[in-house]
């Protein structure tokens, strides 16, 4: 692994942590919510029923792909966005659609010894860019941990958890890629940004 790639991966990981911290800080600094009369104030960003142009946040539950896995698991991919650091972050949700408890299969971690050593993850995920004939693997930090959701719990029937995976970005002119995760069906997704 080159020093340049390692530095970029580290920079991307730091940027992700800083962005998450800022988002939590902003969420925690919200107003009290109560007006002078003790009733909750209307939110400035609240959706109005007659607004023909909903905000970006309201459309955030858009599904790019829904992939079925074994044991009644479903992966719903909700976003795939380019970051300024040259990465693509894929966000989604894994849901247990069965009537029995289920675990994310160990195969989803992939078969690389370095990734497996850090526990269960989605480290086996890849993006395939057919146009440039390249496959992109989940990034790792300097200690070999995959930049993806790790240590996922056993899911009760109907339960879901949010997940993310970070990949190197394909060329800017490649916006359509195939997402693959072991034991799940493949699906085509659009990269934004």
From TrEMBL:
It comes from the Bacteria. Keywords: Signal. PROSITE patterns: PROKAR_LIPOPROTEIN. Residues 32-59 are annotated as: Disordered. Residues 1-25 form the signal peptide. Residues 44-58 have a biased composition (Polar residues). This is Lipoprotein. The lineage of its organism: Bacteria, Bacillati, Actinomycetota, Actinomycetes, Kitasatosporales.
